[in-house]
Amino acid sequence: MESNIFWNSYTFMLLVLCSGAAAYDALDPKGNITIKWDLISWTPDGYVAVVTMNNFQMYRPITSPGWTLGWTWAKNEVIWAMMGAQATDQGDCSKFRGNIPHSCEKKPAIVDLLPNTPYNQQIANCCTGGVMASMGKDPSAALSAFQISVGSAGNTNTTVKLPKNFTLVAPGGGYTCGPAKIIRPTRFVTNDGLRVTQAMMTWRVICSYSQLLASPKPTCCVSLSSFHNASITPCPSCSCGCHNSSNCVRKTPSGKGVNVRKAELQCTKHMCPINVHWHVKSNYNKYWSVKMTITNFNYRFNYTQWTLIVQHPNLNNATQVSSFSYKPLMPNLSTNDTALFYGRKSYNDVLMQAGPKGNVHSDLTLEKDGKTIALFPRRVYFNGNLCVMPSPDSYPFLPSSAGTR
């Protein structure tokens, strides 16, 4: 009965936050991934274009193994060459003699190149293995680009036909792309600032994310504890599904997992890949002291460029944050109770798969404002997905004698 209550409340919250495929996110109302094609020159049978993908989502990254972009050609176009990316399949190019196109697929699938790609195959903002940071974390790393030479396409504004049925595949899924629309040609300023050039033609595609479309089940949960209470409020049972003997990895007495090849997750009562634990370490007259721990129970997945969003009334007065990087977010100007946390480069920006190193943690000092008394967060998001919270009546009880220290 308890698990049904949590599932129903979670589903209701998702329906509110994610109505339809193009979901509205109250914390990130303008978040999307925008794909822009700039035709920079004509060729005898087509054009050369620079394709730029911008991740305008404030806290949802594209993690490893990265994005895959697809579409359907409107006519019989082929890809003669690419820089900064590649098509996964060449397709049937048997009708060509001499020069063979890079891809003859009617529905090509494009992937980013790796960071160690030779420089003569790169362009600016390419070759990160398809990984893109969120805009809130690092705007300079929230984009990806490649160059494409298209043939059999026409070489004027009136003969070129826009590709159709765009798709964006990323770890976890959940993206839906709208149709390509012609917009005002992009203008480019030279490095010396003395000359402005213009694209021959520009079109744009907008892809939106829906958590409900990405997964019918939650992907993270929250547990709570406090210094004044010996008990721990765990993640609700079956938060992300219920386990059986075949779909999760049990621990042996030595602490090592068994049957890892047959399953991905460690056996838990909540069966979530990610558990966020909020522990109140101390309560003083003027501030709270809190420890946050993120644990990865997935044996096959490292979370790169991870982000954590926490809503708590005292986060607008966070005076100290250790280990994690921190930025306040203001969904609206009247409140500032939301914070973005993420790892520090080459230190804890990768949340390793389940095991001894499968966790990261941070200590917070939250100054009290004298108006709100709240020990625990209101909502928690990991990588942009809403986490299941315990029922409020199960929170660690605050005795009247434990007001201040």
From TrEMBL:
Residues 219-253, 262-396 form the COBRA C-terminal domain. It is a lipid-anchor; GPI-anchor. Residues 1-23 form the signal peptide. It is found in: Cell membrane. Keywords: Glycoprotein, GPI-anchor, Lipoprotein, Membrane, Signal. Belongs to the COBRA family. This is COBRA-like protein. It comes from Solanum tuberosum.
